[in-house]
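Bumping with the actual sequence this time:
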Amino acid sequence: MQGSEWRELLAGLSFFLGALVFLLGSLGLARLPDLYARSHALGKSLTLGLALLLLALWLHPQIQASGLKIAAAIIFQFIAMPVASHLLMQAARRREIRKP
C-alpha cells in the first residue's frame, strides 16, 4: 500500500469511529436516567466524536484543508466542550433540577 492509501484507510476508520461514538452518545441520551448522566454521556461523546471526525478530515488525502486550522479546532473543542457541559450542569444543580 502506498502512503495515500494508508491515509485514506486511517481517515475512513477515524470517520467510522467518530460516527460510532456519536451513535453511542445518542443512545446514552435516550437510555440514561437523569439529566446529569445524560449530560455526561453527551459531553464525552461529542468531544471525542468531533475530534475523530476532524482527524478524519485532516487525514483524508483528497481534501486540501489546512492542518494547522484543524489541529487548532481539535484543541479548542477539547477545551470548550467539557467546560460548557460542566457550566450547564452547575447551573442545573444550582436551580436544583432533578428530573429531565
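The C-alpha cells above came from a reply further down the thread. The chain has three helices and no strands.
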